């Protein structure tokens, strides 16, 4: 269930039921994603992951609310592209801690981070925030897909590091919000095999420096809604598993 769409009484009743209730926070960014995907690509992906996770949990009798997504995050690598809105890590962390405090006061049993914005500064911030929230006494479920074991469950392109607005992400947006994809435009984009992971490790500080003058990496032309649906299922299962462990 989406918390923002529910009346407050529905949340009150769920929390009063005595069974543990999880909150899932979709974490995205307002960031350039090639000429064919929307700036809110990561918001769409994280929200799609969160919604599927909540459905999986409800199927197992576990109550989970999907919170309205947090769309603003550190996104410095894309800051040279119009429309990108980057905030500092300190601001991002402060918002997360305050959201967690509010949830804990109300009696939520677990806060889950559904994240698909893999900017290194954002991921580092989320790791710190997760530790801080846990120290407040609210368990955090944060499957970090940039860690080797989880990355290995995702697509070849994702693992290659040449992955931003490419086949992986274009497929995910096609699966849930096809009306936001310039599918014809994506089909004619040449592959960009430059690895972001390698470029970041070598000190690149912008997408252009990393070899992505149009803010995409990978192979948008190979995207499909079917691949996106598969990736969603894998990510949602990982998140559901982490939440169940968090509630145990
Ligand atoms: Zn993205």
Automatic annotation (TrEMBL):
Which Pfam families does this entry report, sorted A to Z?
A: Creatininase
Question: The organism sits in which domain of life?
Answer: Bacteria
Tell me which InterPro entries the record gives.
Creatininase-like_sf (IPR024087), Creatininase/forma_Hydrolase (IPR003785)
GO-annotated molecular function:
hydrolase activity, acting on carbon-nitrogen (but not peptide) bonds, in linear amides; metal ion binding
GO terms for biological process? riboflavin biosynthetic process
Which of UniProt's keywords are assigned here? Hydrolase, Metal-binding, Zinc
Cofactor(s) recorded in Swiss-Prot or TrEMBL: Zn(2+)
Look up keyword Mitochondrion and say if it applies: no
Q: Which PANTHER family match?
A: 2-AMINO-5-FORMYLAMINO-6-RIBOSYLAMINOPYRIMIDIN-4(3H)-ONE 5'-MONOPHOSPHATE DEFORMYLASE, 3-DEHYDRO-SCYLLO-INOSOSE HYDROLASE
Family listed: Belongs to the creatininase superfamily.
Protein name, UniProt field: Creatininase family protein
- Highest lineage ranks of the organism? Bacteria, Pseudomonadati, Pseudomonadota, Alphaproteobacteria, Sphingomonadales
